[in-house]
Amino acid sequence: EVVLVESGGGLVQPGGSLTLSCAASGFAFEKYNMKWGRQTPGKGLEWISTVYTGPGTTLYDHSVKGRFAASRDNVENMFYLQMSSLKTEDTATYYCAVGSQHSGWTQRGQGTQVTVSS
What's the pLDDT score for residue 108? Predict the structure, then answer.
């Protein structure tokens, strides 16, 4: 059974930074692409980044490129999202999930709330 647990969300001021973590278990983590998405009330899940298996391939949505950095640790089965230069429009519930940009979101964690506000 795929289990994903996000942590690290919270309240941060505009321009600030935050790092989200995703602990993965129950599957061969190193063999799967992993992605981050976010959701605001009334909207669907928005893809923001995928870290592929194999070396060095990470994709970002234009809305976060240059500000967010996703990474993975295949030894510890951890997945990360470093967020900087945060904007109020980054406020959302953030999810980690198994898969790439165009795959579904059925295998995802419970989410962690990020609020960017002064």
Answer: 96
